[in-house]
Amino acid sequence: MQRALYRIAQEALTNAAKHAPGALVRVGVECRRDSVAITVSNTAPTRSPAFDLPGGGNGLIGLRERMALLGGTFTAGADGDGYTVSATIPHHTSTAE
Ligand SMILES: Nc1ncnc2c1ncn2[C@@H]1O[C@H](COP(=O)(O)OP(=O)(O)OP(=O)(O)O)[C@@H](O)[C@H]1O
Ligand SMILES: [Mg+2]
Fold first, then answer.
1. Which part of the chain is the Histidine kinase/HSP90-like ATPase domain (predicted)?
2. Fewer Cβ atoms within 10 Å of its own Cβ: the N or the C terminal residue of the chain?
């Protein structure tokens, strides 16, 4: 659970810095009865992203697969002028982390 939450925050914050420089970013974590929900949202960028960004476009795919293994939910996409990543992870996850 902790590793999964860390990985989502790490990837989403890195993405906000890479793809939406200058944006405001909000990270929310909500402990629920059966799960923990994490949401990372950013506003529109205020600067153009750098042209020579490293990365193969696999970060979100990897998170989506990881959340599926844990029996959680995962969404990522444009949110108005900004972008939002949301995941819900059940407390009783499988052994796959
Ligand atoms: N916060 C964001 N704001 C705007 N676009 C985003 C944001 N996060 C992701 N994207 C878009 O979604 C695409 C896929 O994101 P993903 O994290 O999978 O790949 P990446 O960041 O380009 O590369 P990698 O994560 O493999 O280093 C990005 O290339 C970008 O176009
Ligand atoms: Mg990424």
1. 2-91
2. C
97 lies in a domain?
A: no
d(CA 32, CA 44): 29
Is the CB of 16 within 6 Å of ligand 1?
A: yes
Question: How far, in Å, is the centroid of ligand 1 from the Cα of 79?
Answer: 14
Around ion ligand 2, residues with a beta carbon closer than 5 Å are 15, 59
* Domain CATH code at residue 43: 3.30.565.10
Q: Does the CB atom of residue 15 touch ligand 1 within 6 A?
A: yes
**pLDDT tens digit at each of 97 positions of the chain:** 899 999 999 999 999 999 999 999 999 999 999 999 999 999 999 998 877 767 788 999 999 999 999 999 999 999 999 999 999 999 976 555 5
Distance (Å) from CA 96 to ligand 1 centroid: 25
Distance, CA of 16 to CA of 14 (rounded, Å) = 5
